[in-house]
């Protein structure tokens, strides 16, 4: 098939990115808050919503279920009226199959509203196996019957409603924690969820659910306790900022010797990233309006990091930072403990001149599920190495943004193919690149 010319970005690299950009709400919260609106037969208003493709996928899925959704992209306001919810046509739902991982989170809310749910085959970035066993086990424990035999997806029913249960997650999965919260808030009785994830995006979802009328508490040992209530009402909420996007632009500033003020970026959710950014030699200044990130000149320093669940170093921060680490003076080590296969994006970086070696061993001390398994989940980066532009194919969202950063930092031209994938999570990145003085078309 012929390539769409709009899907290729031609970049003339080697220019520092300088200027101001604005980052809106978190992709990984906004989509979940939109699903939460399904729980209440009324109107919900979500503010600070970014103009990204995931918002449109969730809007379409809600509309297929009879929900009214109004997306005011320019002002970042999504209004959802879930007074009416109906079963969607399986064939229609299936057209959205493969576009995102969010549909699985419709399970609990749809079962509460309609007694059943149909979930199409899931999409999302190819960065590991990305199973949904924890999600399905959670739903079963809460009393749902899960039929995986349906040819197009998963059919979930609960003729007698969902009821509270004691659930333990074998790994603190973000999605499975959200699944449990969204399903347990209206379940009859109490639910205890231990081994949960507590990312800031999850805590913002808890805030939304609490505004809606839910009763949820969290213990210091990452156990959520949810007391089911009979009904919930709509909410009005402003999303927390996208800390992954903010860190991506921070890494871009470092890799291109630039100076970027990220309006909207907030410190509390980024403490771990900021520590690493400082250790690498980057400078930052936190203000009431956002965070300024810049390369102060001189050598960047190598670091050893391990990705982890919150409050650890996010896996989604790893990929953009690796590009900056190719410019640090010495050996950096990154041990990826969240996804088994998140270093595929380093191959094009090596072809651009980076020295990066991947290892199956755990190069770190965190307990890791991939120990003694056949996954190349540790990377050693030796720098500084000049990068040279080339043709690149975007593999996944964060890997793709990293390639874009590499192309901007490299000398000479690069053609970045499959660039539309980046629209999934980086709102108006072309406009932002323009504001930062990047040379591209
Ligand atoms: N896992 C299982 N079984 C499950 C669920 C997860 O084994 O049923 C494993 C996964 O395979 C993975 C680990 O648990 O190895 C963590 O997965 P998690 O469920 O936490 O991830 P997720 O909810 O699918 C969200 C974000 C990701 C982000 C991760 C970790 C959304 C839509 N996605 O994914 O974001 O990397 O949490 O923070 O919220 C991105 O934005 O580019 C992105 C990939």
From TrEMBL:
Any GO MF annotation of the entry: UDP-N-acetylglucosamine 1-carboxyvinyltransferase activity
Active site: 125 (proton donor)
Subcellular location: Cytoplasm
HAMAP family: MurA
Cellular component aspect of the GO annotation: cytoplasm
PANTHER family from the UniProt entry: UDP-N-ACETYLGLUCOSAMINE 1-CARBOXYVINYLTRANSFERASE
Chief site of localization: cytoplasm
Protein name as catalogued: UDP-N-acetylglucosamine 1-carboxyvinyltransferase
The reaction(s) this protein catalyses: phosphoenolpyruvate + UDP-N-acetyl-alpha-D-glucosamine = UDP-N-acetyl-3-O-(1-carboxyvinyl)-alpha-D-glucosamine + phosphate
GO biological process, one term: cell wall organization
Domain Enolpyruvate transferase positions: 11-433
CDD domains, sorted: UdpNAET
Highest rank taxon of the organism: Bacteria
Function per UniProt: Cell wall formation. Adds enolpyruvyl to UDP-N-acetylglucosamine.
Similarity comment: Belongs to the EPSP synthase family. MurA subfamily.
Sites where the protein binds UDP-N-acetyl-alpha-D-glucosamine: 101, 316, 338
Residue positions binding phosphoenolpyruvate: 27-28
Modified residues annotated as 2-(S-cysteinyl)pyruvic acid O-phosphothioketal in this record: 125
Biological pathway: Cell wall biogenesis; peptidoglycan biosynthesis
E.C. no: 2.5.1.7
InterPro entries in UniProt: Enolpyruvate_Tfrase_dom (IPR001986), Enolpyruvate_Tfrase_sf (IPR036968), MurA_subfamily (IPR050068), RNA3'P_cycl/enolpyr_Trfase_a/b (IPR013792), UDP_GlcNAc_COvinyl_MurA (IPR005750)
Chain's gene name: murA
One Pfam family linked to the record: EPSP_synthase
Keywords annotated in UniProt: Cell cycle, Cell division, Cell shape, Cell wall biogenesis/degradation, Cytoplasm, Peptidoglycan synthesis, Pyruvate, Transferase
